[in-house]
Amino acid sequence: MTATTEPTRRREETRRRLVHAAIDEFSRRGVDATSVEHLCQAAGFTRGAFYSNFATKDDLCVEVMRFVSDEQVRQHSEALAGAAADLGSDELITAILSASESDPKVLRTLMEIELRAYRDPEFRERIEAVRSEVWPRYVDLVTRAAEHAGLDFLADVEELLLITEAIWHYPRTAGSDQPDLRNRLVTTVARLVTKEKS
């Protein structure tokens, strides 16, 4: 291990622990009610460690968004790699959604970040920039999933993703728990898939 590798590895680990602490604390208290002290205590660091990695709490929120996106793309890519090539549309959609089961703390944290973005236009611009940055990865993932299963979509992939996101996240945002949500989503999305390519 080189002299520059160890500090880089330590820095990445510090940032990772702060991100996980943020997910815990933001999900419990909300973004605005969580202080830097709360975050440092939860992660086991000093304020100096926080400020050597993030200039503001908003910077940490942006890092949380990137972390969650990276994890989702990784989980979906693994689900796709493990899926049989002869899956039908319902089976493929179910396999992908099964990989989407997020920790409730992550979902609450994302909602808290979205609420903060709703109240603060400057912060909203930063969050929208992250979404724009990661969105092509989701489009690519869904495109590859369709190719893997030999399926065509009746809707544009981006439109399909927006529909899926709205259906999947709305009940959580509205505070309701619908056990049959996955089945309803699979049925809805499956209607936008054509028969298998010949």
Describe the structure.
The structure is a single chain. The protein has helices spanning 5-29, 36-43, 47-51, 57-82, 89-98, 104-119, 121-149, 157-174, 181-190. α1 (5-29) crosses α4 (57-82) and α4 (57-82) runs parallel beside α7 (121-149). The protein is elongated and about 55 Å long. The mean pLDDT is 82. It has a domain at 56-190: Tetracycline Repressor, domain 2, CATH 1.10.357. With 198 residues, the protein is mostly helical. It has nine helices and no strands.
Describe this protein with a few key phrases.
0% strand; 9 helices; mainly alpha; 198 residues
Report a brief summary of the structure.
This protein is mainly alpha-helical. The chain has helices at 5-29, 36-43, 47-51, 57-82, 89-98, 104-119, 121-149, 157-174, 181-190. Helix content is 74%, strand content 0%.
Secondary-structure map:
Blueprint: H1 5-29, H2 36-43, H3 47-51, H4 57-82, H5 89-98, H6 104-119, H7 121-149, H8 157-174, H9 181-190
Helix pairs in contact: 1-2, 1-4, 1-6, 4-7, 5-9, 6-7, 8-9
Report Rg.
19 Å
Q: Tell me, rounded to a whole number, the average pLDDT.
A: 82
Low-confidence stretches are none
- Please, how many helices? 9
Q: What share of residues is helical?
A: over 70%
What letter string, H or E per element, gives the SSE order?
Answer: HHHHHHHHH
Strand content: under 5%
Question: What's the CATH architecture name of the domain at 56-190?
Answer: Orthogonal Bundle
CATH fold group of the domain at 56-190? Tetracycline Repressor, domain 2
Shape summary: elongated
The first-to-last residue Cα distance is 52 Å
The class by helix and strand makeup works out as mainly alpha
Name of the CATH first level of the domain at 56-190: Mainly Alpha
- For the report, how would you describe the main beta sheet? none
- Beta strand count: 0
User: What kind of assembly state do the chains in view correspond to?
Assistant: single chain
